[in-house]
Specification:
This protein is of the alpha+beta class and 316 residues long. 28% of the residues lie in helices and 21% in strands. The protein is globular.
Length: 316
């Protein structure tokens, strides 16, 4: 029998119609003593970008947005340095816009008025001309969520709920601050609860979604079956538009990393918020999925994903 890894959170491995590994363990909140179960909802952090990209592609399919639209069409008062940045560049991380570490004055745990956040982004010069390089940018996805709000005519989290979560039956999934929802994990660092990232404005579109391994499996399967997006949209999401420089996951589509895990072709994304980490891996050639959600920032979900892939999908 394979050694079972020790971790806090939920992990699920499915191949075809068979569940080959499904474990939830550890504390969901050390303050209350609540334990992790299959219904516990975790921040999926940057795996949220998959949903942001899908929301944009829904608008593209409806003719409301074009991938080659300049961002200035949808975001007002863009600085000269943003000239030529398109929706495509934001989706593929080829805009040149910075990531969180490039905004040291920004506290990711504190709410900001949307206009102030956009002003902060606009004051930072891009790292390169659009399309000439690749640099991972959560602020780019905040801008995409802002675009969805403007074009969709409703708050971003409501657009996600009506257009994606409800139609696909993702009943344990939501975006933004949890409010009084139940079955919600607390993030932990060093064994203690840590302050959450602000998800209604600062993390909107970049890392704002809560979900379960079961709902993420439904999400992956819906994309695989074409239940949400058409063939061209899915082709663009899963086409490498830029080289990331990462050894195994060396391509990036729209909200999806592309490459190999344990030698197997994979479509995936990782996530890392304060107190939460995640990994969503879809192996199309194996008809298999590996999903890891944890509320322990000491866990490396990529390593656990590789271990579970080898143990339950390859070395069997």
């Amino acid at each position: 029998m394979a050694e079972q890894p020790d971790f806090r959170g939920s992990a699920l491995v499915v191949r075809g119609t068979s569940t080959v590994y499904d474990v939830s363990r550890g504390s969901a909140d050390v303050r209350s003593g609540m334990r992790c179960t299959a219904r516990t909802r975790f921040q999926i952090a940057s795996v949220s970008k998959q949903f942001t990209a899908a929301a944009v592609m829904l608008l593209v399919e409806r003719g409301a947005v074009a991938l080659d639209d300049d961002v200035s069409r949808w975001i007002g008062d863009c600085p000269p340095g943003w000239r030529g940045i398109t929706v495509h560049h934001l989706l593929a991380h080829t805009s040149g816009l910075g990531h969180w570490e490039d905004f040291p004055e920004l506290d990711l745990t504190v709410w900001l008025p949307p206009d102030e956040l956009l002003k902060l982004f606009k004051e930072s010069a891009p790292k390169f001309p659009p399309g000439s390089g690749w640099y991972y940018s959560s602020p780019a996805y905040v801008l995409l969520a802002d675009l969805v709000e403007r074009v969709g005519g409703e708050p971003y989290r409501e657009f996600l709920t009506r257009q994606i979560f409800e139609p696909l039956g993702l009943h344990d999934t939501f975006a933004g601050a949890p409010g009084d929802r139940s079955e919600v994990a607390a993030g932990h660092a060093g064994g203690a609860v840590t302050p959450s990232f602000e998800l209604d404005v600062v993390g909107m579109g970049a890392g704002d979604i809560w979900s379960t391994t079961g709902d993420l499996l439904r999400w992956d399967r819906a994309l695989a079956a074409g239940a949400l997006l058409g063939d061209e949209s899915r082709r663009l999401m899963f086409t490498s538009h830029a080289t990331t420089g990462l050894r195994e996951l060396d391509g990036y589509g729209y909200g999806w990393q592309l490459g190999r895990i344990a030698g197997q072709p994979v479509r995936c994304h990782s996530g890392d918020n304060a107190g939460f980490k995640s990994f969503n891996a879809w192996f199309p050639e194996l008809s298999a999925y590996v999903l890891v959600l944890t509320n322990d920032d000491e866990l490396n979900p990529a390593e656990l994903t590789t271990h579970l892939t080898r143990t339950h999908l390859i070395d069997t």
